[in-house]
Design brief:
Elements (H helix, E strand, L loop, with lengths): L3 H11 L8 E4 L2 E4 L1 E4 L7 H15 L5 E3 L8 H12 L8 E6 L12 H10 L18 H15 L4 E7 L10 H20 L3 E7 L16 H14 L7 E7 L6 H4 L1 E4 L11 E3 H8 L2 E5 L13 H4 L7 H11 L5 E5 L3 H10 L7 H6 L3
Parallel strand pairs: 3-4, 3-12, 4-5, 5-6, 6-7, 7-8, 8-11, 11-12
Antiparallel strand pairs: 1-2, 9-10
Helix pairs in contact: 2-3, 2-12, 5-6, 6-7, 11-12
Length: 369
């Protein structure tokens, strides 16, 4: 796993090439504020090879955050990450490796009949119970996550991952009540706390798409303080000395800035959500001491070719993609902004964004005036 000593050595090796605050504290160590993601791309050998080269290049250029998931590209992305980690000229314990579990993964290719595949590989084998599935493809039951973590460790060829996310838990709101989803999360967190005590993961969190950025009345909304409270209860239940809940992942970019602009969360000390005051998710996470990793930081590529002039004029960077990325990592409370990249040229462009200083808080606020 990533360690304080190794991540600081990594920062000393690369830090002089970047602007201020490029490396930021997370847990006991430091991480780059630009990370590489592995979501997009067809499940082919050619894309695997591009990802291996892109991830290796990123790791050897000052990016020590790699994000993936058990289901990305039919399981191929995790394998590419494992290959790149083994090939890169960096220490494993200098890199924050994050993965996720929640969606039922395929194995290398998309099956002709996904429903039959899920039935034969997951239901009939007892890996997951039918009643735990949402939309026939998503579960956060402890037994399922336990198996998915093992699957991820095998694909990554690692003894442990640094951060394990429960993937899009709001998906479960389609089939059960909000209270039931919080209960399910608590059970999932107990499993992850046990795996943390066993040394299989360093920390955990939730990766979301809608849960923390939609209004409180929205059907997909979840309360971050309520989620944290369930993690604290889970840690206490398994006898842990501390709580391993350390991070959230959510979309954030110029076009999806809700995590900063929308006051939809109670303050962290108000777990019951009874106080009138509401704050943004970024402010809530900051006050709770939770790291924020942004996904879709350049709108899955859409902002790499165009950016609103009123925003572009205020941001540093030589290209629209760099300016969009610097917008995301300038937001108060953001630990790292993730960008998917399987092209070495894109990796170099994204890394170079870190040579520019991020906006200060006042300048960032001015973008919304």
């Amino acid at each position: 796993m990533a360690t304080r000593e190794a991540t600081w050595r990594y920062r000393d090796r690369f830090g002089d090439a970047f602007g201020r605050t490029f490396f930021r504290r997370f847990g006991p160590g430091v991480v780059s504020s630009v990370g590489i993601g592995t979501y997009l791309g067809e499940p082919t050998d050619a894309v695997d090879e591009r990802y291996r080269e892109a991830i290796r290049l990123a790791l050897e250029s000052g990016v020590n955050v790699v994000d993936t998931a058990v289901n990305y590209r039919c399981g191929r992305s995790e394998r590419a990450v494992g290959d790149a980690l083994a090939a890169a000229d960096v220490d494993r314990d200098a890199v924050l490796v994050a993965t996720k579990g929640g969606f039922v993964p395929f194995d290398g290719t998309r099956p002709e009949d996904p429903g039959a595949y899920v039935r034969e590989e997951f239901l009939e084998t007892g890996v997951v119970d039918r009643e735990d599935l949402a939309h026939g493809s998503h579960a956060i039951a402890p037994g399922f996550l336990d198996a998915m973590l093992d699957r991820s460790l095998s694909a990554l060829r690692l003894d442990a991952v640094d951060c394990y996310y429960v993937h899009n838990p709001e998906t479960q709101l389609a089939v059960r009540s909000r209270a039931e989803v919080y209960d399910a999360l608590e059970a999932a967190f107990e499993l992850l706390e046990r795996r943390r005590l066993a040394g299989d993961l360093g920390s955990y969190g939730v990766a979301t798409w809608e849960a923390f950025r939609v209004p409180e009345g929205h059907e997909s909304h979840l309360s971050l303080p309520a989620v944290i409270e369930r993690a604290e209860r889970a840690a206490e239940a398994v006898g842990a000395d501390d709580c391993g809940f350390a991070a959230v992942q959510l979309p954030f970019n110029v076009a999806m800035a809700d995590a900063f602009t929308r006051a939809n969360q109670p303050r962290p000390d108000d777990h019951a959500g009874e106080a009138d005051e509401r704050v943004s998710t970024l402010e809530c996470a900051h006050e709770a001491g939770v790291g924020v990793f942004t996904s879709a930081s350049i709108g899955q590529g859409e902002l790499s070719t165009s950016l609103p002039d009123y925003v572009a004029d205020r941001l540093a960077g030589d290209t629209p993609a760099q300016r969009a990325l610097n917008f995301a990592r300038s937001a108060p409370g953001v630990t790292c902004s993730l960008v998917g990249a399987s092209d070495p040229a894109h990796v170099r462009e994204n890394v170079a964004a870190g040579t520019f200083d991020p906006l200060g808080a006042n300048a960032f606020d001015a973008v919304f005036e």
